[in-house]
Structure formats: C-alpha cells, structure tokens
Amino acid sequence: MLSENKQSILSIRNLNIWYGDKQILRDLSFEVQQRQVTAFIGPANCGKSTLVRCINRLNDFTPNFRFTGEILFKGTLLGASTDTTALRKQIGMVFRKPTLFRCSIYENVAYGARISGVSRSTALDAIVEKNLRKTGLWGEVENILEETPEQLSTGQRQLLCIARALAVEPEVLIFDEPCGELDPIETVKIETLVRDLADDYTLIFATNKRRQAARVSDVAGFLYSGELVEFGATERLFTNPQDNRTEQYVTGRLG
Amino acid sequence: MNSMTTRAERKQKIVLQSIAFIILGVAFIFLWHELKNARATSGQPASEAILLSALSPLFNNLYIVLSMSLLAILFGIAFAFYLEEWLPATNWIRRLIESLIAILTGIPSIAYGILAILIFFSYADTLKEAIEAFPLPENIGTIPSQIETTVFYAEVLTFILMVMPLTIKTTQEALRSVATPIREAAYVLGANQWQVLTRQVVPIAFTRILAGGCRAMSRAFAMAALLIGIYTWHYTTELRGMSGRFILFLTVALFLSIFSSTLIWVHGSNSAQHS
Q1: CB distance A168–B189 less than 8 Å?
Q2: In angstroms, rounded to a whole number, what is the distance separating the alpha carbons of residues A58 and A80?
Q3: A174 and A94 in contact (C-beta within 8 Å)?
Q4: What is the model's pTM?
Q5: pLDDT tens digit string along A83-110?
Q6: Cross-chain Cβ contact B188/A99 below 8 Å
Q7: Tens digits of per-residue pLDDT, B161-184?
Q8: The CATH number fitting domain B2-270, selected from 1.10.510.10, 2.30.130.10, 3.40.30.10, 1.10.3720.10
Q9: Are B118 and B154 in contact (CB under 8 A)?
Q10: What CA–CA distances, in Å, run from B264 to A201, B15, B41, B210, B269?
Q11: Is the Cβ of B202 closer than 8 Å to some Cβ of chain A?
C-alpha cells in the first residue's frame, strides 16, 4: 500500500512530553505521509491521545505541559510563535465523545466557515451540503437542518462532528478514538468513511482496538508506556512484527 | 507520585491562604486604629449608636447604591474573565487573589457597613463634624459638600470589597461550568480565544453570571437597608417612623435574591434536559 510518490507532511523528531514531573512520551520519531491513514495503537494510558493532541497544539491548554523535540508540519517547525488558530484550520480533529454546539445542525457544520468570515448564505448552504454529503449524513438530516442535533443518535452525531471538521477544509484530520462510544454498526460506518476520506486527506487515527487499526490504516505505530515500540506499514506490523512486545500486543497477549 | 503533587498543592494553598489572611488582618487593624485616632481627636465621646447612625447617609440613595453596585459588578465580571481565561491556573497571583476572595465572600454584609464607617471617619476631619453633618433623620438624602468626597471613597471601597469578590467568585464558577470538550471542539475548528468566549462560553455561562450579579447586588441593597434601619431605629422605635427607603431597599434586595435563585433553578432544569 505504500507508494513512492507520496510525500511526508508531518515529521516528528525526538519528541519528549512531560506533565509536571511525569514523562508521558519518550523520544518519539516518525514521519506521516500525505493521503494515508496513520494509526496509533496501544493499551489505555500509553500516550496516544497526548501524542495526537500535540500535533494540533491542543496540549497548550494543559497546565504543567512541556515538551522537547521537533514537530515539523509541511517543513515548518512548530514553535512558540506558531499561529495556532491557522494551524488548527489545517489540522482538524474528531474526539472520542461527539461534542456538538447548542445550535442547529446547519450552524454546527457552518461553524468553521463562519469564524473564517464566510457570511453569504448561498456559500454557507453549499458548504453545509457538500460536507454532509461527504459523510453520508445528508439524506438523514436534509429536512431537519434547522433543528438541534439532540435527536440524532451517537453515531450520527459523530458523523456530524466529522462533517463539521471537514467544513474547515483541513489537510490533516486527527481521529482520537472516534468509535469509543459507538455500537458496531455505527463503527463500521465511521471506518468506511475513514477509508474513503484517505483519498483526499491525511488521516491520523488513534485507537485501542487493534483489529480496527488493521482494518483502516496504511501505516501503524505501536505505543507502549510512552514509547513508540514499532512504526511501519500496517500489514507488516500485524503479520510480521519485529519487536517482541508488538507481537504480544497484536496477538492479544499484552494490554 | 500523584499524592505527592496534591500534598504540595495543599501546602501551597495553606501558605497562600495565610498570606491572604495576614494582608486582610493588617488592613482591618490599620483602619480600626485610624477610627480610634479620629475619636480621640474629636474630644467628644460618641455612643456606638451615633457612630452607626452616621453610616446611613452613605447608603441612603437608591441611585448611588444601584450605580455603584452595577459598576462593581461589571468590573468584577471583567476581572473574573481575566483571571479565569487569561491567567494560567498555576499563576501565584491568581491563586493569591482567589484566596483573598474566598475570605472576603465569607464576611457578612453588615461587617462591610462597619468597614464603611471606619473609612468614613478616617477621612473626615473630626468626628464631631461628621456627626453634626447628619443630625436628624429628616436630613437623610442631603450630603454636605465638604464631606462628599469622603462619602464617595467610603462607598467605593465598600462596594469594591463587598460586591466585587462575590461577583468574581460566581463568574469564575460559571466559566468553569462550561465543559472543556465544548471549548476544545471549538478550538480544533480554528476558533481563536475570543471566538470561543463569545460563541461558546458566554452563551452557556450567561445565566449563571447574571444570577451571580443579581445576588451580589441583592447583598449590597440588604446592607444599605440594614444601615438605614439602624439609623432610623436609633431615633424612633415606632413602625411608622421607619424610613421609606428601608422598606424599598429591603424589597429590592429580596426581589433580586429570589430572581437570582429562580434563574439558577430554571437554568439547572434546562441543562438537565439537554444532557
């Protein structure tokens, strides 16, 4: 599945992260290729969320957070002077729990466009329809666009969150355990969508379900207690792991 | 490891609370000393009742109490936004101010009335002059020009110390009640801090901020009513002798208090439905 013409969009070099005195991640280095699904697997509390939240600088809000190492997005080093709002428009994120704003379904999807200054209703209509179609939610919510999203199921809410994130037109989309609260049928929908989106976007996918990572990702990394044990093509990682711990994890004996 | 950090935090909290306590203690002792000096130089011993009676002209004007408390509430809300949204939780100035607020909100409102008189007499030339300025209940409402500025200082300081801490505390709690996932959901869409505040945080926290402001204002009116009550009761014990303003202020205080509780109650049952 790895092809040569794809180029690196995100490089992380020697990343160390601490919360206070506690080290969460130890010396991580990897590259994320464009238009691929890169998954991070590992047991709970191994630092998956911390890692993915580092990429769009969401950890800035965590007290006592500090890091060393380099994070390069499209060749630019992310430092203290980085414009985080501009960065987050390029790197979207979907959380485990679908959190929607207390406004209509339409306004939820239009949020990103509105804060960027789009106010013409025809332009907003087009953005909302396009992104709801992309997630396959358009048919279900077409007639209830002006109503609040409370009546939607958890799976539909998560799809709406994805549509909302896509409406900002990011290049990279981070999924932090997007199926953590969903039932199997809804999970399949999200997984199929993730595979489809990989044609146009670079996706980073954190999950603690190893089979799920095997299904959706092109490249996978195994994190274990803050260490990136192994990183490489998903097929190889699952069929022929190099490290003993990876083998134990993917076969279900560890974590 | 976790218990170590919480123990260190607790230690820091105790230190900050003690510093806050010492600061406030020194301030109050200083004011008390000033009052004693003022009484000594007046050469005329005054009864406590007369002392208290001089209080009421400070707070007998509806518009002054209303505008002063409104101003203090607005400043309090602005200050709470600054503390909660701009200063990091680990900032020691923020923690010291929070400790001071925790102490100040616990003091009953009538104690602030006493504080007002302490400031009032510290700035007035002599006690005699101050008392002579307000000899009879009929004169409630007229403030002689020579002590106008004194009255102003006393009022401003009292409202800052009484109304602002309560407003800051309730506003901070309202802002904290907005869940982190809502904020993060907006941030990851590329919203800046101002957009997150105006589009997500304020709409959710608004009712609680408003209720906190009403509660603080109710407290100001209750204190003013009490001071007027003490003043008039010093001259007459008859019900008819009660100042109309006393009734008015007490009614306003009660109304604001009930209004604030109703807001919180309605808001609570609303958000219970949503989640």
Answers
A1: yes
A2: 13
A3: yes
A4: 0.79
A5: 889 999 999 999 999 999 989 999 999 9
A6: no
A7: 889 999 999 999 999 988 889 999
A8: 1.10.3720.10
A9: no
A10: 45, 34, 50, 9, 9
A11: no
